[in-house]
Amino acid sequence: ASTLVIKDLHVEIEGKEILKGVNLELDSGKIHVIMGPNGTGKSTLASAIMGHPKFEVTKGEVLLNGENVLEMEVDERALAGLFLAMQYPSEITGVTNADFLRSAINARREEGQEISLMKFIKELDKNMDFLEMDQNMAQRYLNEGFSGGEKKRNEILQLMMIRPEFGILDEIDSGLDIDALKVVSKGINKMRGEDFGCLIITHYQRLLNYIEPDHVHVMMQGRVVKSGGPELAKRLESEGYEWIKQELGIED
Ligand code: ADP
Ligand code: MG
Ligand code: MG
């Protein structure tokens, strides 16, 4: 089992403090969800963990199995087992989806232990079938001309192929129609297991009709202000965030 521990994380963008001391502990085997109003720093948290250069960590720690992630280069973070589904995944011109996946898998393996082409293709076919993806997606250039829904499905394909220790999925459900939402959820549920932990960031409860989270956290004004189980998400859906503000004495 793996752990991802975020301790008193403070992050600035262009000199403005966005995260003001985030504390969160994730274990593999569990699905955590972060919800919260717009602009409270949810995406900032995801980007800071993955090392986006625009985000400056001014204080705090992110520890993956006790190792300081913040001291790692971005590619080292992926090699160590973190996976971030980008809110707006970028196109990588000239690299096919299949090439990208195969090198991402092999990058995490020892020399001489690379996945064989046969095995890779078999896995890829199986997972693309499962996600009801068109087989030609494998040979398309990564994210080039992918629709919003195709990008999201493809992120779940990446997750299933790369099998990271922790997946951080930011707004994986935004802009999806109901069928795509079901497929994306099916993929995440398939990943569930002892050696996979997940942090899902979402505005909406509707994803949680398909994925039962183990833990739900509420983020407001740059901090995790409340944690609970699935019932917390349900209460947010019906009552919004006002009651939490009142409970905690948070002003707008
Ligand atoms: P959330 O994901 O919870 O909606 P974000 O993390 O995207 O919130 O944003 C938190 C705050 O940081 C907002 O006030 C937003 O305007 C600001 N912010 C986010 N990204 C940038 C950026 N690249 N440059 C400047 N400000 C940013
Ligand atoms: Mg936002
Ligand atoms: Mg966001």
From TrEMBL:
Residues 4-246 form the ABC transporter domain. Pfam families: ABC_tran. Keywords: ATP-binding, Nucleotide-binding. GO terms for molecular function: ATP binding; ATP hydrolysis activity. Belongs to the ABC transporter superfamily. Ycf16 family. This is Fe-S cluster assembly ATPase SufC. It comes from Jeotgalibacillus salarius. The gene is sufC.
